[in-house]
Amino acid sequence: MKLFGTAGIRGRLWEKVTPELALNLGMAIATYKCGKAVVARDGRTSSVMLKNAMISGLLASGMEVLDADLIPTPALAWATREYGDAGVMITASHNPPTDNGIKVFNGDGTEFYVEQERELEALYSSGDFRKASWDEIKTVRPLDVIDDYIGAVLDFVDHETDLKVLYDGANGAGSVLAPYLLREMGAKVVSVNAHVDGHFPGRKPEPRYENIAYLGELARELGVDLVIAQDGDADRIAVFDERGNYVLEDSLIALFAKLYVEEHGGGTVVVSIDTGSRIDEVVEEAGGRVVRIPLGQPHDGIRNHGAIFAAEPWKLVHPKFGPWIDSFVTMGLLIRMIDERGPLSRIIAEEIPNYYLTKKNVKCPDELKREVVERAGKELMEKLDGEIRETLTISGYRFNLSDRSWVLVRPSGTEPKVRVVVEAPSERRRDGLFELAYGTVRRAVEEAMKNKRGN
């Protein structure tokens, strides 16, 4: 049974994610690991139920449990490193409220590596779990994490500010932490959607531009210096500058990649397959190198390449603080950068090159995604022949072209969709490439569906 996608286990409640899954996975984790497990949840309506089932499974196979309850995922990762031998987060991150999921962490705060996920899946499928005898069953103890985690972030960032910050918590788990961290830094904080509600009444939890565009106008009306938006479990971060302009995900990654490479006098940056050429430009100019990896594997990339920084869109890892995605460290360092170097709009304009990017999804049944991507990838390879400088197949097909344009077609690891991403140095070039790539994928889906109905 395939459990893990690009970011843990995720899916529709009762269809893929059930209390039985959480219970049995808890037993598998406790058979695979020993000692103490730190367990936490996001604010989804089903998360308490799943957390309790997970705790039961962990206890049944002999682990002690530290229950951190409602906290963001970065805080769970930090707490796992500080107090546990394993960590479990009940969350579906940015997925719709109908979904839920599970992320599993090692004792150092890294998410399970790919090979560990495979081993855990095999153990789960076998059902060969350790069963603790009555006198071996451990306890559940509450764990208060938030204040200590805020203190750790403040110590790392080491900066006080008087910036005015607009914070949008998406009614997610970040709401219990982010406003307080920002105020501890000295910021003047205006919050929206900052009460936890598993129905996500304020907006969709994914902080992509179309879901948070209203924050630009609100920023201008309020006269803030920075806008920060998070997703349901607060590992993702999206940003608007002081003019109310959305900062593209790749520009934010490029900004931090440049910062770390300059600090280290070189080094390797690992970024996901769907990131763009502006990152390569600034990293190479600063004396570093870029390595691209599959989505959902920044921790694998740090381990395998000795990276000083890792990222994928909205998700930044700061290895000096910890080997997990951490939006709170990102916001703290970004505030320090603005205070030291000027308004964010000016920093981006002066330091980050501009490219034109378009992303769009094509709906596709899960069982057809692989076939569709293979069909579309091969057709695009033929149509782009002569322009292709490099082809990457670590996650779908990515074609790096001779003019620094690139085209990516990949299956979503969490949803029934195929993702199409195109970037180019000009809008005209981008639009032409996107029309080609998106049309090719749509035709591939239609053909695959027709073949399926025919069978």
From TrEMBL:
Domain Alpha-D-phosphohexomutase C-terminal: 361-429
Keywords: Isomerase, Magnesium, Metal-binding, Phosphoprotein
GO biological process, one term: carbohydrate metabolic process
Classification via InterPro entries: A-D-PHexomutase_a/b/a-I, A-D-PHexomutase_a/b/a-I/II/III, A-D-PHexomutase_a/b/a-II, A-D-PHexomutase_a/b/a-III, A-D-PHexomutase_C, A-D-PHexomutase_C_sf, A-D-PHexomutase_CS, Alpha-D-phosphohexomutase_SF
Named cofactor requirement(s): Mg(2+)
Keyword hit for Metal-binding: yes
A GO molecular function held by the record: phosphoglucosamine mutase activity
Domain Alpha-D-phosphohexomutase alpha/beta/alpha: 2-130, 148-244, 250-355
Entry-linked Gene3D superfamilies: Alpha-D-Glucose-1,6-Bisphosphate, subunit A, domain 3, Alpha-D-phosphohexomutase, C-terminal domain
Pfam families: PGM_PMM_I, PGM_PMM_II, PGM_PMM_III, PGM_PMM_IV
Signal peptide location: none
Family as reported in the entry's similarity comment: Belongs to the phosphohexose mutase family.
Name of protein: Phosphoglucosamine mutase
